[in-house]
């Protein structure tokens, strides 16, 4: 069952210049981490609180852990609801006001007890000029127009079997111009699908990693082509996104269950590792944070570490790259800044934001660290740590230490001059216009 509600659209031009897709004269943040390009140029807000700096705030119809995506003047966000996650939801909101434009609802293909130990609408959607495509851990896959009309729907449990996985499926969708990539790293027979965006038809199906993962697939530029890179505990693999052929495997790694690869140059990507969610510490974990490089060797590829960090580790959030520096934030809230060419440590210092589950962003020369408890620390991109501001998004004083059971800040998405911040049940927009009031 589906229903849709509509309000008039208002044109909204984004001015992000790095890591954004140009379409129909507008720009957008079209996927999880915007494809790993986590920098943008507009001047962003640096000060907000529960009572000041909010442009708008909306309660979501359900709960979710996915990243909002943006195209033109609309934000798309997914969630689930019900004690057994019986319903899946997609909501579209106007970027300028937070007003709901439409909502899609459907029955969950695989209901499962709704609790904090299993993913809850964790996969992030993708969007382009044609609309938005959303995936839910129960197996629901749906493509919608920007007006909320269903283009096509698919139940992966009917075509590919049960999706049961430890702590649920969390991999976000990845996409290119014509195809969307779905990674289901389930307990048995894990797989990756490439589907046509236009009609949902399967182009190819390949085997997954056969390991534990809540990471997301990432397209990485390698020479004149791309590799679809998958990262899971003790293994990274590269697939040909055109054919699905496995191109290489890399196993000199451990603890890499959650952070997603982030490109730092042609054939190079950052990878992070920690003890992982529910995973025992791995002897390789401490030396599994760094830059991996892919080199073409005739018909084959050689994959190796360019460098590994001496002591940097990650939390659930991915590392990020900006201005020739790599940033890793560990579970204790220590930010490690490293030179991306050499791996040499520039500095390491604890910040008030604490552990991060959202990927940091580099915005107008500043690095935003989004603490899981709703505290964002903003630091200058420089060779010494200089804290510009630390802001509470909600009354979160007790959460600065990362107390269990409290609300979680899962994601941040930039607009033209503001930030959309997503916690499980609420969407916030902080921005310049509200600051000046």
Structural description of this entry:
The protein is mostly beta strands. The chain is built from two helices and 35 strands. The protein has one domain: YVTN repeat-like/Quinoprotein amine dehydrogenase (Methylamine Dehydrogenase, Chain H, 7 Propeller). Helices cover 2% and strands 43% of the residues. The strands form eight sheets. It has a six-stranded antiparallel beta sheet with strand order 1-2-5-6-7-8, with no helix packed on it. A five-stranded mixed beta sheet has the order 3-29-30-31-32, with no helix packed on it. Strands 4-35-34-33 form a four-stranded antiparallel beta sheet. A hairpin with a 5-residue loop joins β7 and β8. The N terminus is likely disordered.
Number of DSSP helices?
Answer: 2
SS-based class: mainly beta
**Strand order, biggest sheet?**
1-2-5-6-7-8
CATH architecture: 7 Propeller
User: By CATH's scheme, which homologous superfamily applies?
Assistant: YVTN repeat-like/Quinoprotein amine dehydrogenase
State Rg.
20 Å
Per DSSP E runs of 2 or more residues, the count of β-strands stands at 35
The first-level CATH class name:
Mainly Beta
Strand content: 35-45%
This entry's quaternary arrangement is single chain
The shape is globular
Overall average pLDDT: 89
Q: End-to-end span in angstroms?
A: 43 Å
Q: How many separate domains?
A: 1
Largest beta-sheet details? 6 strands, antiparallel
CATH topology annotation:
Methylamine Dehydrogenase, Chain H
- Low-pLDDT runs: 1-26, 277-281, 398-402
Helix fraction, binned, reads under 10%
